[in-house]
Structures are given as C-alpha cells and as structure tokens.
Amino acid sequence: MELNKIEKTTERGKRRLGLGSGSGRGKTAGRGTKGQKARGKISLSFEGGALTLIKRLPFRRGKGKHKVFKKKPLIVNVKALNLLKKDTVVDINTLIKQHIVDEKDANIYGVKILGEGEVSIPLTIKLPISERAALKVKKAGGSVER
C-alpha cells in the first residue's frame, strides 16, 4: 500500500454540533440565541403549556418493577428429548452434550422441560418439569426425579 495509490473518499461525516468551544459551534451550536427554534428538537421541558410527558407517566414502584431483569429458564419441549438414547439421565450436562441447549445460557438461566409433542423412549429426568411433560415421560416408561 502506498499513500499515492489510496482511493479518495468524498463522503463527509455528519457534523456534530455543540461539542465545546473548540468545535467552532460551541455554546449555542449554531442555533443563535433564544426562541422556539433555538430549543432542542424533542423538548422534555416545554410542551405547549401541557404537563410534560415524563411527569404524566406513573412511577413504576413495587411489585413487577424489575420484571425485565428476572431470569427465566430456557424451555426444552418433550419432543426434543426423542434425540436421546433409551434410559438416559436427562440433566443440564446431557442437554449441553447433545447440543439441545447452549452451555452458557443453560448455566445462567437453567432449563425447564415443557410438554409440547410426544416422547417415545423411557428417560430419567432430573430437571424442573411441567406436570403435563411429567405425565408424558411416565407414560413412555420413564421417571421424574425432582
């Protein structure tokens, strides 16, 4: 690579406004002084005299506030267990080895078995399992250890 053989680029980046006096557009960011057009585009301080949106919304207090951060287990349906061999002990390590679940996610969130589909082989399950899934496993000749 040589400097005289580099292709010229003609696209300029978007001008970033109001980033200090050294930018040439500091303080008022090229908007002049005062007035409606000098304010921010999405003003949280003035909405035509109405109470601001932020103040109209209720506080999110107490129960359910942190639902976003709650860790839910990975779901594996009973039909996925048909890939395993007869009389296999089903735990997180078995599911990871068979590539049914991701190792990182399984260790963080855990695994729960739900009852969608059918299972045709007897298995021993040592994971959290729904009642419907447990019935299907027992019907196939397997067992559930909680």
Give the gist of this structure:
The protein is α/β, with parallel strands linked by helices. The chain is 18% helix and 10% strand.
The helix-strand sequence is HEEHHEEHE
What distance separates the N and C termini?
A: 65 Å
As a whole number of angstroms, the C-alpha radius of gyration is 30 Å
Quaternary organisation: single chain
The name of the CATH architecture of the largest domain is Ribosomal Protein L15, Chain: K, domain 2
Helix content: 10-25%
Strand order of the largest sheet: 2-4-5
Write down the domain tally.
2
What is the average of the pLDDT values? Answer: 85
Q: Which overall shape is indicated by the principal axes computed on the Cα atoms?
A: elongated
Question: How would you describe this protein?
Answer:
The chain is of the alpha/beta class. The protein has 4 helices and 5 strands; from the N terminus they run αββααββαβ. A 3-stranded parallel β-sheet has the order 2-4-5. It starts with 52 loop residues before the first helix and ends with a strand. The relative contact order is 0.11.
Describe the SSE topology.
Elements: H1 53-56, E1 74-77, E2 89-90, H2 92-97, H3 103-109, E3 111-114, E4 124-125, H4 131-139, E5 143-144
Parallel strand pairs: 1-3, 2-4, 4-5
What would the keywords be for this entry?
single chain, 146 residues, alpha/beta, Ribosomal Protein L15, Chain: K, domain 2, 2 domains, three-stranded parallel beta sheet, two-stranded parallel sheet, 4 helices, elongated
